[in-house]
Structures are given as C-alpha cells and as structure tokens.
Design goal:
Two copies of one chain form a homodimer. Chain A has helices spanning 2-5, 87-96, 98-124, 127-144, 159-166, 170-182, 198-205, 223-226, 228-232; strands spanning 10-13, 18-20, 28-34, 37-42, 48-54, 59-60, 73-76, 80-86, 152-154, 187-189, 192-194. By secondary structure, chain A is an alpha+beta fold. The first copy, chain A, binds a DNA duplex through residues 126-127, 158-160, 168-172, 174-178.
DNA sequence: CGGGTAATTGACCCGGGTCAACAGCAGTGG
DNA sequence: CCACTGCTGTTGACCCGGGTCAATTACCCG
C-alpha cells in the first residue's frame, strides 16, 4: 500500500549524492525501492561516520511527525530509486490502516536495535570480527527481502564505505578483507558478495541473530510487504 | 499521569544488580524515578559494552508492544527506584491519553538519536573527545530534568563504567580523566561532577546539542513531566 | 581493623593509523 | 583506437593511541 499511494512521487538520484542533509526538515518519509543508501554524520573537521545502511524496503527516517530537524544526513551509495511519502499522505494512510503505523513503528525499533549492535561492534569487536559481522548482517537483511540468491548477494560497498562504517582506515579495511578472503570466509567480485559457509563467517563474527528480530509476529507487514514486487500483485 | 497510575508497582533494586536480562520478555515498561541505570550487551567471551545510561525520567524499553524479547540487558548502577507499568495498564493509558503515546514515541526517537551520536563517538572521536562528550551529554540531560545545580551534577559512574561505555580500558580512562582534570575541564569529587566552563568542555568534545532535540514542540509532555515532582502537583 | 572496591602508576606491547606510492580498470573525449 | 583521468584496491615502512599486566595506593563501610 505504501508503494501504491506514493506512486506519484518516485524519485531517483545518482550514486554518491546526498538525499537529505543534517539540519533540514525531512518533510517526508522515504521508502527505498532500488539501490543502497546510508545514514551518516560528520564532525566539523571532516571525520565522517556511517550510522546505517539502507537497502530496498527500508524506510529512512519515519519520524517525520515528531522530529522536524534531521540530526544526520542520508546519502545514496548506488544509483537509487525511492518513494517520497509526504506528511499529509502519511497521516491519511496510517489513519486508514492502523497496522501500517504499527509496521513502521516496528521498523523503527529494529533499526534502533541494529544501531545498538553497531555500538557493540565498534566498542568490543576487533577489525576482523567487525567487518565479518557487517557482512553477515547485510546478508541476512538482504535475504529477508529476497535479494540474495543462494550464497550470493549484491555488495556495492567500496572499502572506503566499509571504513566509514566501521571507524577503520581504508588501508586497514583492505588488509582485513584480504585476510577474510584468504581464510575463505568471503569472496567479493564485481560488487557481489559470496559467503561460502555462512555458519563459519557468523562464528568468526560472534554473530547472534536475535537483534535483527526476524522472528516477529505480524511478519506480513514488514519490509518485505512494502517492496514493489509484492505491492504490484496486491 | 504515568507516575500516578503506576503508583502500585514501584520497585527498588540494589546497585550493580540486573533489572532485566537479554532474551526475556520485558513484560512491562519501566520509568526510572531515582538513581542511574544502564543498557548493555555482552559478547560470549565476556567483553561488555554499555549502550546507554538511564537517569530519572527515562523510560527503559517502551517497546513492550512489539518486541517480546529483550535484545540487551538493563542493570542498575546506583541504588535504583523505578515504576513498572504493565502492558495492559499501558494500553489503557495510551488509549485514554493519546498524547502520552506520542510522548513515549518522542522519547524513543531521542534515544535512537543519542545512540547514533554514540556511534559517532566510538568511530570518530578519540578518547579525550569521547569522554568529554559523554560528560557534556549527561550534564545536559540531567539539567533537562532539573537534576543539576549550577555547574554541578551527580555523577555516580566509576571509571570502569566509563570504560564500558566508551570501549576503552579503565586504565586509559583513568589517564584521560586525569588529563581533563589537569586541563581544568572537569572536577570530580565524591560522585559529583563540576564543569567550570561548559562551553570550553563542549568545544573539547566537539559537542553539537542538536541531536538531543531539546527544542522540540510539546515539551510539556517530555521526560520532565513524567517525574514524580511534577506529577505530584497535577 | 579488615576486606573490597575504585583510582592511580609504570613498563612494555600491539592493533590499527599514517603516509606515500603504485596497479587495475572503467569511463570519456579526441 | 588510444591517451587521459579518476576511482578503487593493494602494498610497504614506519608510528602512535590505547591496551596489557601487575603493583600500589586511596577509600569506604561495617
């Protein structure tokens, strides 16, 4: 439904362009349809930290109602297609279909849980564990929206992106990724990631899937059902 | 209102005891009335990371509705007094007073924003900036609920707590705190923190208050109004 | 006074950062 | 078709912020 109602306001942006910048009123909720984006913050001297990755089916900042000033920015990683759903439109929709509002809230809670895991990543996991964890997480999330095929999934992130997300240097990311590849934990080729043995990578990452809350009640309302593929058949 | 309706289920716990543990159903929302607590996660090998500090007026995990399994634990730091508000009670309340539900949602969003700033802290700020930032943040939050007096606020955190929260070692926390004290940025004595020159500390921390969203609309419904002091007068 | 927690200190080490160069490759314009 | 440009990945040499280990010194409280 989200998709259908917003059919009039599909937007596209080029890779590496910002969608919204810190400080402005988001004005609308954005539903990623195709491509990857990220949430990030930076310090006045240029240091930059990625806070989250968005994949198709994700909502950027569904809190338009309450926070009128972005406390971070959102940028496209790949070529990106997203639906922009204005505040009024959103109100009308959630009033008509209360379960949508619940689904959105659920989405926010899972995002917050992922953010917490990221804090654990940065504070306690070392570079190898951290990068392995990030790849496992993305693989699970992509699989949940049907974007994996077998042990393979799209992986448009550069080593620089990985550095921004982990707080490491891209030089060190490079070394660690070489290690992980030499250990046969991952294979990356042409922006595709293959995980030959997921269980082994998860072990190396100290991965515990609980925080993704993939087992929730009301799964029919989650990100999956917001994807165009599902929407077009309804 | 939150306070009054929950008058029947005030609980107290000793310092350093857990309130809820990862994996269990929270069953209720908890409103901190007195003392400090923290949210934390740990890895199987014992590494531990604090994800957030709770001060009076904060809600722990207001998402009882949707997530039935804690993905982290909550522990008391000091002697703690909190109100436990059951799911049914909560439903009744939010149905009667929709603005409470909004206030809770707002609270969640601010918590998420703080979590994001913590990711920035861990990824980009160095030890000095990080610790300075943490103290500035806590000072602002305490002031927002009327728990500061002048340049002073309660500060029950041990250097070990600071280490858990920043991902540093307590040895290094010790050294950095000595530096900050020698630089006249903070004074700590008898579990009290004094900030002689807030602006200077903020500068050292690269602090930007925007993420705390202290300027929101509907301030009358925020944490402040949930404190017993205010409730008793209504 | 005794036991436990919290703070402090010193010597030494290592994960990851810095700097600088270079290689591979895609896109672009001539 | 090729030279040029720019981004991404890779590598080496060296450095430093923060970690590790192990004492020692306040405190605090019964």
């Amino acid at each position: 439904m989200l998709g259908r109602m917003s059919r009039g306001t599909i937007r596209e942006v080029l890779p590496r362009r910002d969608i919204i910048h810190e400080g402005v009123d988001p004005g609308a909720v954005r539903l990623i349809l195709e491509g990857w984006a990220c949430r990030y913050k930076s310090l006045p001297d240029g240091r930059r930290q990625t806070l989250a990755f968005f994949i198709p089916g994700d909502l950027c900042d569904p809190h338009v109602y309450l926070l009128r000033k972005m406390d971070h920015s959102i940028g496209a990683i790949t070529h990106l297609k997203y639906a922009e759903i204005g505040r009024a439109q959103m109100d009308a929709m959630t009033e008509r279909y209360p379960r949508i509002s619940q689904a959105i809230h659920w989405n926010e809670l899972v995002s917050a849980s992922i953010q917490r895991e990221w804090i654990l990543n940065m504070g306690q996991r070392n570079a190898h564990e951290h990068l392995a964890h990030l790849m496992v997480e993305l693989f699970h999330r992509l699989r949940a929206v049907g974007l994996t095929s077998g042990a393979t999934c799209p992986f448009p992130l550069t080593q620089n992106d990985l550095a921004d997300a982990t707080g490491l240097t891209c030089v060190h990311v490079n070394r660690v990724m070489l290690d992980l590849r030499h250990d046969g934990l991952v294979e990356i080729d042409h922006r595709e990631l293959r995980i030959p043995d997921l269980a082994r990578l998860e072990k190396a990452a100290l991965f515990n899937p609980a925080y993704l809350h993939l087992d929730h009640e009301g799964a029919e309302l989650d990100e999956r059902s917001m994807l165009p593929a599902n929407l077009s058949t309804s």
